[in-house]
Design goal:
Oligomer: single chain
Largest sheet: 7 strands, mixed
CATH topology of the domain at 24-134 and 196-220: Rossmann fold
Mean pLDDT: 89
Distance between the termini: 29 Å
Strand content: 15-25%
Order of helices and strands: HEHEEEEEHEHEHEEEHH
Helix content: 25-40%
Low-confidence stretches: 1-26
Number of strands: 11
Length: 226
């Protein structure tokens, strides 16, 4: 499914709020991500029962709106679940998965919102991560990502109400508190809820550049945290 085409907005990038403490942007490494040869950044959202709506929708909106930058690539978005049976998300929203784990194309980016996962979810994430550029979680999706072992020995964050739980359940992870997101080369975690928007904008920046991320945030009328 190709999304976001045909949006017309001013293209000038605007300097937006850079950081929670005023210096965050200066500390962020460049960590560029390679643009696929065909210009399609295939982005999978792993969903299941109880998927948090803003965890999914915030990042989805960023990636679909990144087209405003008219860059060399665009994000192709799809959902993946254990099967294609309708999933009940938070608040009773019903979602129809685009693919099952068995039929999903190999993604460049994987987004893990908070949801009830299974062993099949974890197995698919481990397999997808082998060739993906980045696997990112939003909110308590960090617990799903932690189950894969991909965060072992790394720093990570989650919703502020779950810092202690994550630290206790996964002692190989160093939990970072009070940050909108924490990133590494091929894995990243966002804090609670709207923090996923900031991390998704960072992913846009890593693929398409700072101006593209700023233009996307401007279109969304959103002030970036970094």
């Amino acid at each position: 499914m190709v999304v976001g085409a045909g949006i017309g907005v001013p293209l000038a990038a605007v300097e937006l709020s850079r950081a929670l403490d005023g210096s965050e942007a200066l500390r962020l490494p460049k960590r560029p991500l390679p643009i696929p040869a065909d210009g399609i950044i295939r982005t999978a959202f792993a969903i299941g029962y109880g998927t948090n709506v803003i965890d999914l929708a915030g990042a989805w909106e960023v990636f679909q709106d990144a087209v405003v930058a008219r860059g060399p690539a665009y994000f192709e978005l799809f959902t993946v679940a254990e099967d294609t049976t309708t999933v009940e998300a938070s608040g009773g929203l019903r979602l129809q998965p685009t693919y099952s784990y068995d039929t999903a194309p190999p993604p460049n980016v994987v987004v893990i919102p908070a949801h009830q996962s299974s062993e099949a979810t974890v197995a698919w994430l481990r397999q997808a991560a082998k060739d993906a550029d980045l696997v990112m979680s939003v909110c308590t999706g960090a617990f799903v990502l932690a189950e894969t072992g991909l965060l072992d020995g790394k720093t990570a964050t989650t919703h502020h109400g779950s810092y202690d739980h994550l630290a206790a359940a996964y002692p190989k992870i160093r939990v970072v508190r009070g940050r909108r997101f924490v990133e590494h080369e091929h894995v990243a975690t966002a804090g609670g809820l709207t923090s996923g928007i900031d991390l998704a904008l960072r992913v846009v920046q890593r693929y398409l550049g700072r101006d593209a991320a700023d233009a996307t945030a401007q279109y969304m009328e959103y002030s970036r945290a970094a």
